[in-house]
Structure formats: structure tokens, C-alpha cells
């Protein structure tokens, strides 16, 4: 092979290798994307509930959560997969779409992002005269802390079932056979629907990081009850992950 051809071949190989390296995010980049995406989700969704809930109502809050997921998915999905939710991460791992070894790191990053978002939201909300945490600070709850007084059993069922539904949508929309480019939109719209159903029941979690982030600041009964909003979504997501292949087939 002529020297010039060999040089060109080597240069092409180097460029190709560099392109591969650039297109494979590092662990730090993935975790940063998860933290930032979860920040946007909690600040946008819970922020709408806390700052504008009386103006936009349940429908507006439901749309806010859906829109933040759409925005986050298209902004960071190519970096980390756009989970923004420990239950989603567990569900994807259960479906063999994600490595179990990465689950703890993702979950920690998501909780950190949610907590920072809640802290910023608290600073903003407390700047208004008459602000109080008595209204729950967009936290989740059951019994007397449920918006419409639903029981613990009702809350556990709705959170587990709707999280499972959410995972089925995610798994289907992100499958190799799905129409490309529309996963974020389908996932965001499904989260909007989930909120329309369950805001009156539990103030809608389906996301342990979202629940923990605001519960730290709401304190009291919000922290006492937050276990339900960790357990039920994780169980629902895991069930969906383990069973999705019966509906859509398992991807290799």
C-alpha cells in the first residue's frame, strides 16, 4: 500500500475511533445528565404545583410534569437514557435494558437532582408573603394527607399500577421496532395521563426521587409516609420490567 494511502487509512481510523469515544458518554456525564434532568422534572412539575397550582389546577400540574419529561428526554436522553426516576431505572434493569450495576449511581444522582430542585423551589416559594409548608409543598400522602382522603391501600395500588403502566409505555416507545424520534413525546403524554388519574388520590408520585426531594422540606408526616412512594413505584416498575416481554417481546 502506498505511503499516502496508509496515512489516509490511519487518519480515518483515528477519526472513527475519536467519533466513537465522543459518542459514548462517561459515567460522570450520565450521572450529571440524570441529576439535571431530575432537577428539571421536580422544579418544573412540583414548582407548578407550589407556585401556580391555584391558577392552573390539576390539569395544569399534570401537563407540567408531562412537559418536563418531554423536555428532559430530548435534552438528555442521548446521554443517560433519560430515566430521571429510580423506579424507571429499576424497571429498565428488570427488563434487561439497563445494567443492574449502574442502578445505585443513577438512583443517587436522581435523588440529589430532586433535592436540589426542591431546595431552589423552597427559596423561591418562601419569598412570597404568607408562604407556609402547611399545604404540603407538593409532597405525596395517603389518608388525611391524600388530596381527596384516599386510604393507604388505594394509594399503594394506584402508585404501583400507574408506575407499571408508565414502564410499559417507556419500554414500548423505546423499543428497536418503535417509530424513532417519538419516544419522549409518548412518555411525556403518558405521564400527563397518569397525573390526571392520580393527583386526587396521592398527589402523584410514580417517582421515588420526586417524592423524597420535596419530603425533606415538607418534613413531618410527609417524611413518615414517603416510604409508600418509594415502595409502590419500585414494585410496579419491577413487575412491568419482568413481564413486558410477554406483551412486546424481549430485546437482546
From TrEMBL:
CDD domains to which the protein is assigned, alphabetical: MIP
Gene Ontology MF term list: channel activity
Superkingdom, taxonomy of origin: Bacteria
Coiled-coil features, chain-numbered ranges: none
GO CC, any one term: membrane
Transmembrane segment boundaries: 31-52, 58-76, 106-125, 150-170, 182-202, 222-247
InterPro entries (UniProt xref): Aquaporin-like, Aquaporin_transptr, MIP, MIP_CS
Keywords: Membrane, Transmembrane, Transmembrane helix, Transport
Localization of this protein: Membrane
Membrane topology of the entry: Multi-pass membrane protein
Gene3D superfamilies associated with the record: Glycerol uptake facilitator protein
NCBIfam families per UniProt: MIP (TIGR00861), PRK05420.1 (NF003838)
Protein name as annotated: Aquaporin Z
Organism: Nocardioides cavernaquae
